[in-house]
Amino acid sequence: MKRIIAWILLLPSAAMAQETSQVSYDYFDFDYFRIDWDAGSTEIDGTGWAGRFSVGIREHVYLGGEYRTWDSDGVADRSTFKRIGIGVHGGLGQRLSIFGEVGFKSLDLDLGTGNVEDDPGYIGAGVRWQVADGYELRLGADFSEAGKGTPAGVGETSVTVGGDIYLTDTAALSVEVNENDDNTTTFMLGLRFYHKKSGDLRQRR
After folding, report:
1. In a designed cystine with 15, which of 30, 44, 48, 90 is the match (CB 3.0 to 4.6 A)?
2. Cα separation of 188 and 31, whole Å?
3. Distance (Å, rounded) from C-alpha 104 to C-alpha 122?
4. How far apart are CA 118 and CA 141, in angstroms?
């Protein structure tokens, strides 16, 4: 996994050979997710809701963030996750975009044995590829300052694979799977809205 992380983190250095891209960094989405944490002989599962956004603030610069809240099975209190970051992106052709991001996370986790709180910084990068009109694939990775072995989603490195299936010009079904090196797997399904996109997919076909 660490070789994959290193490769993805180097991608933004190539992004300055930029072209106009169809990939948009102006969106917001609403998601349902399931998180599974395997701690040896103990498994902790949970389900919850998330909201994410990205806003372009310069031609190749964006501000992104998210908020998640979920209940773990057998635990009375809810857990929360927040993220805010700033990123840069560039196109390699019209359908391929590479991005890099830095920022901070805030975690308040309740797993039934007391709260775990942390506010680590992170660095991440990835690639977004519009494989065809109406379909996008994404691959990303991030490295966090949080200590290895910290519970449920706070491990040092993680890899995310996902994509979009467009339902209209501006709305897409978003699917993602995240694998964290503390044995946490998150499955996320939601609706993503690219509110600044214009035109009709049928016209581009």
Report:
1. 90
2. 6
3. 6
4. 20
Count how many residues are written for the chain.
205
Domains and CATH numbers, the chain: 2-204 (2.40.128)
Pairing of strands 121-132, 171-180: unpaired
Banded pLDDT at 196 (limits 50, 70, 90): confident
> How many angstroms separate the CA atoms of 89 and 24, rounded?
10
Q: Which of 2-11, 19-28, 139-148 has the lowest mean pLDDT?
A: 2-11
- CA distances (Å), 112 to each of 24, 42, 45, 109, 122, in order? 40, 12, 12, 9, 26
Record the pTM.
Answer: 0.79
Find residue 62's DSSP bridge partners. 56, 87
pLDDT tens profile 101-138 = 999 998 887 766 666 778 888 999 999 999 998 999 99
